[in-house]
Amino acid sequence: MFPDGLLHRSPQERVRYAEILVYIAAADGELVREEIAVIEAMMGRAMIHPESRVTVRSGFEQPIPLEQSLADLDVSFAQLILRDAALVAAVDGDYDRRELTALRKIAKTANVSSKQLSVLLDWVTEGWHWFEKATDFLSE
Amino acid sequence: MLPDTVHKLPREERFAYARLLAFMARIDNELTVDEMAMFEQRLGTALLSPGQREQIRAALKNPPSLEKCLEDLSGEAGRLALRDAVMMAAADGTVDEDERDALEDISEHLGLKEDAVEQLLAWTVKGYKWMKEGYELLDVLEE
Fold first, then answer.
1. Which of A45, A80, A133 sits opposite B37 (nearest CB)?
2. Is A97 within a domain?
3. pTM of the model
4. Do B3 and A111 touch (CB under 8 A)?
5. Would you call A1 an interface residue with chain B, using a CB distance cutoff of 8 Å?
6. A106 belongs to a structural domain
7. Which CATH number does the domain housing residue A12 bear?
8. What does the alpha-carbon distance between residue A34 and residue B8 come to, in Å, rounded to a whole number?
9. B85 touching A, CB under 8 A?
10. Is B45 touching A (CB cutoff 8 A)?
11. pLDDT digit of tens for each residue in chain A (140 aa)?
């Protein structure tokens, strides 16, 4: 679906990707069904092995600390994670203060400025508008 | 990821939704990595039970007929399945004749407007453009 290099990343890297997304989803408190659905979708798209998904799900209640997941992450991979983390953070319709703090930490690892992070969040908003259009015309 | 409602459907309807996507994934007897990733993404969104996932993956190997898939599909689940079937059909960059025919059959079964598939294809093109912009954005993010 996404023309990106996620599938070329190692299985370990893809698990780390999912663990960071779990952290973002859980940043504003307990995970809700929308957030679990988006994590499952991202794990599916990353084609993470079913057994590894079980490991990732174990972080739903106790996410791995973000600093630990971000350690030694290469910049281009951190940027890819930042993009998807922004999508995950938006899933409940708003960016919580704690989600924004976490996004800024990822942005720092990814060498992305606040201004550029803002551009990325605008891109997420455009995606929301695009996605909603299908719902609109299918329900006409 | 985006404001979706698949996970809100009743369990049986989510299963019917996923089964239709399994049918679409195998319609041209090819399953590209892009299609598989898209299929797995939608399967994740549907929040199926482990048992249902096994059944759906089995349906990928031995796909049910379109008629069988449509038996249990109507209303919102049907519309969401058509939307995502269009995205899956376009995942490898082209929508071939068999895929297009199946999409039109689904749309007719759901009683949608004549140009519903056309509208969804145009919508999908816009979506892929948005996704591509997101990827290209990564190249210019670094300070």
1. A45
2. yes
3. 0.89
4. no
5. yes
6. yes
7. 1.10.3680.10
8. 9
9. no
10. yes
11. 444 678 889 999 999 999 999 999 999 887 888 899 999 999 999 999 999 999 999 999 899 999 999 999 999 999 999 999 999 999 888 888 999 999 999 999 999 999 999 999 999 999 989 988 888 878 76
